[in-house]
Amino acid sequence: MTNSKRRRGLSVASALLGGVLVLSACSGGDDASGSGDGDTSQAKVDEAAAKKTSEAQIKITPEDGKDNASINSAAVTVSKGTLTEVTMTTAEGAAVKGEISADKTSWKPSAQLERSTTYKVAVTAKDAKGLEAHENGSFTTVSPNNSFLGYFTPEDGSTVGVGMPVSINFDKAISNKAAVQKGISVSTTSGQEVVCHWFNDTRMDCRPDEYWKAGSTVTLKMSLDGVEGSQGVYGVQEKTVTFKIGRNQVSYVDAKTKQMKVTQDGKTIKTIPISAGSPDNKTYEGIMVMSEKFKETRMNGATVGFTDDDGKGEYDIKDVPHAIRLSSSGTFIHGNYWGAKSIFGSVNTSHGCVGLSDTKGANDKGSAGYWFYNNSIVGDVVIVQNTGDKTIAPENGLNGWNMDWAQWKAGSAV
Hints:
It is a single chain. Helices cover 14% and strands 37% of the residues. The chain has helices at 3-28, 37-51, 177-182, 368-374, 405-410; strands spanning 57-61, 75-79, 82-90, 95-96, 98-100, 106-109, 118-126, 132-140, 147-148, 150-153, 159-160, 166-170, 184-188, 194-198, 203-208, 217-223, 228-230, 233-235, 238-245, 249-254, 259-264, 267-273, 286-289, 292-300, 316-325, 332-336, 354-357, 381-385. The strands form seven sheets. A five-stranded mixed sheet has the order 22-21-20-28-23, with no helix packed on it. The longest helix is centred in the first third of the chain and has 26 residues, at 3-28.
């Protein structure tokens, strides 16, 4: 290469490098040395933008995208600000009612959410300067297959007899009985110790050693949300139930004398002639608790195993008056209008129920059936004696009183 060519090549390279340097200097400002005027300007822009951002911090529970979410814990909270608008809808667009707290820092739905449902939440809040913040989230609640419910008796706010246990029937088999039992508490204003007993994997009853004290109040608390009842199956209930114990009424049915003594606080207030189960169809003996009352109901023998050669019920009475259930298997104390009046107090003729003289239509105020029905409440105790039959199984109805206290406590999981 000649010297002239070499000089021309260096000149071109120098020009290109100079162009790059010039362009670089232009991108940073007029000061080609990059002394910091440009950085300071950008910081000022960032600072100004930050001042326009709300300080309000919104939190949505359950977190965005969560599956198998609780149906009880949905909530919105805000710190460094106040809530101005919260909307919750299902994926289909149905609105969910809710309320913002008085101090405008939290929101909750007004009712328990549904299972297996996707919910969307949109929130707006303002900080002290009036700047708005926004947050959105979506979650899906736990499915029925992954959750369990406990169906309980008696009802909230009811008044019941002294024999009424708290009885809970679960819709899934419970293997972690101790965990579930720890999530349930039963207390009474009388101060009586209350113990729960598992009859099987789906039923747990709770009662004191002796009948509830008349006039006391019993409280059932179910804190089962998130409690694992069995592998992968969780509770969803957060509920408090209270009921009152009425007067102490216990009735004694004697199949031998064919009389029933109705007592209150240990004193006999009425004696009623009865007709119990026949020698071929004896009535269970033992302590029984009234679980349901029907002014009139149908009784078909086929439903409890009394059938003729054609498979039809040995009886089918569509208007049995004043029927009170004593067992799950079909034992009732009820009015009887079809039998001769002479049988009551003199002969046992029934298929296992306890019959009282009554009148068709259930409106005869002078009948024994009418009086007993109207002077009884669910939870009252009926003790059946001298029938010659076995004692009713404790789990057949609400009849756990046929276990002594040691047996009852042995069925607790805690």
